[in-house]
Specification:
Elements lengths: L5 E3 L11 E5 L2 E5 L5 E2 L1 E7 L6 E7 L15 E2 L3 E5 L2 E9 L12 E8 L10 E3 L7 E4 L5 E5 L3 E6 L11 E4 L8 E8 L2 E8 L7 E7 L7 E2 L6 E2 L8 E10 L5 E8 L11 E10 L5 E3 L8 E3 L12 E3 L11 E3 L7 E2 L7 E4 L14 E4 L4 E10 L7 E9 L2 E9 L3 E9 L3 E7 L7 E8 L2 E7 L6 E6 L21 E7 L8 E10 L1
Antiparallel strand pairs: 1-25, 2-3, 3-5, 4-27, 5-6, 7-9, 8-9, 9-10, 10-11, 12-13, 13-14, 14-15, 16-17, 17-18, 18-19, 18-20, 21-22, 22-23, 23-24, 26-40, 27-30, 28-29, 29-40, 30-39, 31-36, 31-40, 32-33, 32-39, 33-34, 34-35, 36-37, 37-38
């Protein structure tokens, strides 16, 4: 008898929070929160439930989603994917600033988009005026459709096409009484309505609770096994476990995908909230547990499905006329200031107004950090001759927390290592007298340590500066910055520092290796 394959959690590594997963035939599809990043709502595909790759985004037309002035960690919160009558649906909350700038003090709206194929094209999002978060789509046995939102399981009837509100909102299950009941899902099995909710807040102490009822709006009984998922060991390598959804494989086995985080040098989840997977066990009296109530597993027996592995590292030589699907812009892009065809084989970004600490910055192009240790590298050709012009590598969390390693002109052509840890930009190191021609830039990350390297020939590398502690690049690292729900990204950028110039910065490739 062959030995069972095993996998390691998380299965979606890096900034992939708030998972929602469905199975359609032999294929599994996942969506995750994207907040202020664009394209919005990554859609990932798997055949074996363990290995995932991005196949598209639910919203990829910037005319359909204006994130240009959205605050950090606002925008698209926890989405849900469903499959009904041959169509795929994605529901997602749009968390607005709530400052009246857009003509309303509404905090949240629900968006819904539909497709025949999860790779797209997706329809222009329809807006449902339901002021809540974490929508999910439930279809009852009689075909009635509902929107389920927080707090706990609050239910709103929908039209037959799921694109309009069709009735009064009512609370079906209020939760167990723990704080912040969110991330709800309702599903039906053996005549029972099961309601799930994440409770305890999305940080340490997060968990999943369950209740059931014979009626959708009936009296719900809380599970005797609550919370069915929670990390009880404060020293374990996986924390913040909650916000989950159940799915069945083709063999009839049930599984739970859920949110988690890996601490990095303390209680700092630098790469952000991720997605983990554990098996579900049904009890004789019709309740279920996740991983036998032991909390998140680090290593687990894999589902009994053929293994299907996708490449995890990213090497983008920019030879295609389209960006790799791993790339995200910070807020809406300016496609008129970016090109993959102007200089074939290179990514060209023209400098423009808007610096990294400003929401109006454009074309900061980043990808997820997947591990606590990795190396990223690029080759840059850029000829700054005005103070303020800059282009290079960045390790980006938000407008108030980032690191940039830039080729610039500040009284001469030089490299600068600059950090922002919620107190404005601070120069850490400088390399003067960089000669004209290409320069290679790299960052080596080992836990909380980040070393920034450069080369003038692509062979000999020198260290420009090293940061021993980068705890500001995570949800927990800046206590005074209230909304921090994303993860650290790494990538490239160019801007003019406010001098008004439009100058090309050309990137020959970008390499990421765990």
């Amino acid at each position: 008898m062959s030995e069972k394959r095993q996998y390691h959690n998380p299965v979606q590594r890096g900034f992939f929070p708030d998972p929602s997963v469905i199975r359609v035939g032999d294929d599994f599809y996942m969506v995750n929160s994207s907040f202020q990043y664009f394209p919005a709502i990554p859609i990932s595909h798997s055949r074996d439930m363990v290995h995932w790759h991005i196949i598209g985004h639910a919203i990829s037309d910037p005319e359909w989603l204006d994130l240009s002035d959205i605050r950090d960690s606002h925008g698209i919160w926890a989405p849900d994917i469903s499959y009904v009558d041959g169509k795929f649906y994605v529901f997602a909350p749009l968390r607005l600033n709530g400052d009246g700038v857009r003509g309303s003090n509404v905090l949240r709206r629900q968006l819904v988009t539909v497709a025949d194929d999860p790779r797209g094209p997706w329809s222009k999002p329809v807006c449902l005026e339901v002021d809540s978060i974490d929508p999910s789509h439930f279809v009852d046995d009689d075909g009635s459709r509902y929107l389920v939102t927080a707090r706990a399981a609050t239910v709103t009837p929908l039209s037959p096409d799921s694109l309009r509100v069709a009735g009064e909102t009512r609370v079906a299950w209020p939760g167990t009484g723990e704080r912040a009941p969110e991330g709800p899902h309702i599903f039906k099995k053996d005549g029972w309505y099961y309601a799930m909710a994440a409770e305890g807040g999305t940080g340490y102490g997060h968990g999943i609770s369950v209740a059931r009822s014979r009626e959708l709006f009936g009296e719900y009984e809380n599970s005797p096994y609550n919370p069915v998922m929670r990390q009880m060991d404060p020293e374990a390598p996986i924390q913040r476990a909650g916000h989950g959804k159940l799915v069945q494989d083709r063999n009839g086995q049930w599984w739970c995908y859920y949110l988690c985080g890996r601490p990095n040098g303390g209680r700092y989840t630098t790469v952000g909230r991720e997605t983990a997977l554990d098996p579900v066990q049904w009890t004789p009296d019709g309740w279920f547990t996740v991983n036998h109530g032991r909390g998140p597993s680090l290593t687990q027996d894999a589902p009994d499905l053929p293994e299907c592995v996708f490449p995890r590292d990213l090497f983008d030589d920019f030879d295609s006329e389209k960006l790799n699907l791993e790339w995200e812009f910070v807020r809406n892009p300016d496609y008129g200031s970016l090109s993959l065809t102007e200089r074939p084989g290179w990514l060209r970004i023209w400098t423009r107004d808007g610096q990294l600490w400003e929401r109006r910055a454009k074309n900061t192009l980043v990808r997820r950090e997947q591990e606590l240790s990795y190396r990223a590298e690029t080759k840059l050709e850029f000829n700054p001759d005005r103070d303020g012009e800059q282009a290079g590598l960045c390790c980006y969390y938000s407008t108030v927390t980032y690191i940039r390693f830039s080729l610039c002109c500040e009284g001469g052509r030089k490299l600068q290592l600059v950090i922002n840890r919620n107190a404005g930009e601070e120069l850490i190191a400088e390399v003067p007298d960089i000669p004209a021609g290409p320069v290679w830039l790299a960052v080596d990350v080992k836990g909380q340590t980040r070393a920034f390297l450069y080369s003038l020939d692509g062979q000999t590398w020198r260290e420009a500066g090293k940061l021993e502690s980068c705890v500001f690049l995570c949800d927990e690292g800046v206590p005074g910055d209230r909304k921090r729900h994303t993860g650290t990204m790494v990538g490239v950028y160019a801007n003019n520092g406010g001098c008004g110039s439009r100058k090309p910065a050309d990137f020959d490739y970008f390499k990421y290796e765990d």
